[in-house]
Design goal:
Length: about 290
């Protein structure tokens, strides 16, 4: 556990951009920091600043009770740590890699078999913002374990505890990525449509920013309607939405750009109408999305 006079030792396994950024923050805050990466050269700059390079995964685990994993997915954790399970006892594994809620639950049980504790987490900022104001990380698992190490983990971002179910951090993480990935795709599709007429994306940018500014208020209305199961259709019923999406798809076709995104949305709208929600609001789309 960290104190002001004796910062907690930390091991970082995985030195991609995120792992390097986290290690840098711990070094900047005087935490004894051990690092390991399959490609050892990725640790060179950190070692030059005082990090300790572990030669093996076993050494990395032995160096600190608190072990942070920043890998591609949970399978990478198994590949790296399975040969070193004898060194897991007494360790706290904080896996900040991306994966599914179910994988986080399985990993908690796997770690426990070898005497290790486990927290699942999701970092909600890109590497350059690690440790900066506004950075936050979802965590789930044991609240007591998180609280015991919160002052250390908060170095990389505010610790947002989502619950004792180990899968909840990944659930929140993947849900927000869902918004980011699909929103980015829609913005880029809109840019492709604009550029088909020779209009620069930077000319379109201010209109996108103004248009997106109302989304926080929109989400509040959406959340309330979905939770109540009441889909107000006075201003945006699904018949209207499907007709509008047809126009977006046709405009894309006429512009000779990819139509797969608007076509996919149009199919969802049409299915919602077939289920009898034509006069209901756009939020009735949840009735399709919440099913297999």
């Amino acid at each position: 556990m960290q104190t002001n006079e004796n910062p907690e030792a930390v091991t970082i396994i995985g030195l991609g951009p995120m792992g390097q950024a986290m290690a840098q923050v711990f070094l900047d805050n005087r935490h004894p920091t051990t690092v390991w990466n399959r490609t050892a050269a990725k640790a060179d700059a950190l070692v030059a600043q005082g990090a300790i390079r572990a030669e093996t995964v076993q050494q990395a685990l032995a160096a600190s009770r608190l072990v942070i994993l920043s890998l591609t997915d949970y399978q990478a954790m198994y590949q790296l740590l399975s040969p070193a399970t004898g060194a897991l006892s007494g360790r706290l594994l904080v896996n900040l890699s991306s994966d599914t809620p179910q994988e986080a639950r399985k990993a908690t049980q796997w770690a426990a078999r070898y005497g290790a504790q486990f927290l699942s987490g999701g970092v909600m900022v890109p590497p350059p913002l690690i440790g900066k104001p506004g950075a936050f990380v979802f965590y789930s698992g044991s609240r007591a374990i998180l609280e015991a190490h919160q002052s250390t983990l908060s170095r990389i971002g505010k610790a947002d505890f989502r619950g004792e179910d180990p899968g909840l951090a990944q659930l929140y993480y993947q849900a927000l990525l869902d918004i980011m990935f699909t929103s980015a795709a829609s913005v880029l599709h809109a840019i492709a449509l604009i550029r088909s007429a020779g209009i620069p994306a930077v000319t379109f940018g201010p209109y996108v920013q103004d248009f997106l500014a109302f989304l926080p208020e929109l989400f509040q209305d959406v959340a309330e309607e979905v939770d109540k199961g009441q889909y107000k259709g006075a201003f945006n019923n699904m018949n209207m939405m499907a007709a509008g999406m047809s126009h977006v798809a046709q405009a894309s076709r006429d512009a000779n750009i990819n139509t797969s995104l608007p076509q996919a949305i149009k199919q969802l709208y049409d299915e919602t109408i077939r289920m009898g929600y034509g006069q209901d609001g756009l939020t009735s789309l949840i009735e399709i999305l919440k099913k297999p």
